[in-house]
Design brief:
The protein is α/β, with parallel strands linked by helices and 252 residues long. The chain has seven helices and seven strands, in the order βαβαβαβαβαβααβ. Helix content is 44%, strand content 15%. α1 runs parallel beside α2. The structure holds NADP nicotinamide-adenine-dinucleotide phosphate (NAP).
Length: 252
Amino acid sequence: MTEQRLAGKVAIVTGASRGIGRAIAERFGAEGARVVVNYIQGGEGAAAAGTAIEAAGGEALAVQADVSQSAEVRRLVRAALDRFGRVDILVNNAGVMVAKGVLETTEGDWDRTIDVNLKGAYLCSKEVAPVMIRQGAGRIINVSSNSGLYHPSAMRFTEYVVSKAGLNGLTKAMALAFGPQITVNAICPGWIRTDMVEEIDPETQQRILDETALRRWGTPGDIAAAALFLASADADFITGELLIVAGGRGMH
Ligand SMILES: NC(=O)c1ccc[n+]([C@@H]2O[C@H](COP(=O)([O-])OP(=O)(O)OC[C@H]3O[C@@H](n4cnc5c(N)ncnc54)[C@H](OP(=O)(O)O)[C@@H]3O)[C@@H](O)[C@H]2O)c1
């Protein structure tokens, strides 16, 4: 049997009922982590992720919590500690995107996107960091986006881009604040085939492929592999970085 890279670790993955978060939760479980699978509505998906983790010999706990609400975030972290006694890895993955231009979006779209994508990561990190500092080590991985680094064809989704640019800044601010015990990094995926991008029109989809050096969409597994690297001992000396995983789309 190959060595499990996260053996003994406890991970919280937000928004892990489907898409990228679920792939990360299942990959971490397969690498020996005990995983808290967070969701907001997708109880069935979260349960299925837990079943897959346990079938691979791991342990999982599904917890419903809205990451944009501080009381719910406190409950999420408390549930992790009650069940597993520690938290080694936090993946701030939960996210929403409204595919509208700046003049079409509503104040409600703006608030929800910023609240989930940016404030959610802030609240979860703030709750978990003292635990990790007490333990003497920890990893925070923010699932940001290539669009937060300025990519012209993503600029339509205004508040989404703003939320991810903010998350990139938060990544660096927290890396400075939480060192030396905790590393904080972000992954900036390009377009990944999940529910989030289902509504993108065919013309835009073709343009995305044409702009991508590897001429394919990313998969949730591509992002899970990057998250595993950042969570593993191989990334011990990496903090405050933005890792672009985009098949060569929007190279910087
Ligand atoms: N797909 C892409 O092309 C792409 C590209 C760059 C970055 N990303 C980022 O990757 C992350 C995951 O995206 P995805 O494509 O996997 O999206 P997805 O398939 O739409 O899944 C979103 C996940 O977030 C959860 N969620 C939404 N609001 C939440 C809240 N308030 N509290 C807790 N969980 C919440 C959802 O839970 P429920 O199932 O319970 O609703 C779901 O598990 C996001 O941060 C996204 O911005 C995606």
